[in-house]
Amino acid sequence: MRWRSIPGRTLMRHALLRPLVIASILVGATTAALADDVEHGRQLAERWCAECHATGAAPTRFNRAPPLAAIAARQDISAEMIASFLLLPHATMASPPLSRQDAGDLAAFIMNMRK
User: According to the CATH classification, is domain 38-112 in 1.10.443?
Assistant: First the structure.
């Protein structure tokens, strides 16, 4: 039996598919809106991290913590790990007021340095 062969079934099929299509569009739009912003992450790194970490490719002699590029180069680290770490309080590191989106942006900037 095919959908087209029974009157009303086509309308039922469209009625069932419509919410799925709308939901997939909304999820796609939400995901795009929450995508990590590398440029914003760079700005945050310069504001909150540059006092202790080199935020560029080359370390400077004044940095007392590992360069962000060295953190990104570690094979055992991911953007999710960095973002989670940034949201926790630290004894040896300043705890800037970061939102989850800020932490994601900063992690994206750091991971963007990976070569």
Answer: no
